Amino acid sequence: MKLLERRIQVPSVGTYNIFPVGDLQKDAPGFDEALFDQLKTEIQKDPFPIVIGMGDYCDNFRPTVRSKIDVMTADDKDFRAVLDDEAHRRMDILTDFIKPIFKPKRGICLGMLKGHHLYDFADGTNDVNKMCGTFTC
User: Fold this and answer.
1) Computed over its alpha carbons, how large is the radius of gyration of the chain?
2) Cβ-contact 81, 69 below 8 angstroms
């Protein structure tokens, strides 16, 4: 995770800060919680942050893991439902953790990209779709 900063000067309006946030990889060994907290503090202090989710918010479901899940659950809907329940539980924890960034008290989240560390639910949605619904972006 690397902290980047972009500013846009809008004549007669002022400066807006754009915060592209991605590759958090929460739960991965390299996740830097101190840097995450610094970003969260900057967004909370900003008068009107513009946040864009760039994907890969957690490290749960890499493509290799997802392909194994698809093979293991191809003929077993009950097992898939158990995995979906666990994915929902993990997603709820992640959503609470990243909410201060993607649903700031002021400002806006323009949207969230999927990346390739996501979970596809049996109903055809994925965890990023559900987070966007929670964050209304």
Assistant:
1) 17
2) no
DSSP-assigned letter for residue 61: -
Of 107, 4, 12, 16, give the one whose Cα is nearest residue 54.
Answer: 4
- Residue whose structure tokens are 């290799």: 64
Angle at 59 between CA 58 and CA 64, to 5 degrees: 135
Has this prediction a pTM greater than 0.85? no
Query: Any alpha helices (H) in the chain, and if so which ranges?
Result: 33-45, 63-73, 77-102, 127-135
The phi, psi pair for 44, rounded to 5°, reads -70, -30
Which residues face 110 on adjacent strands? Answer: none
CA distance 42 to 7: 13
- What is the rounded distance in angstroms from the CA atom of residue 5 to the CA atom of residue 134? 25
Task: Quick: pLDDT tens for 76-98.
Answer: 989 999 999 999 999 999 999 99
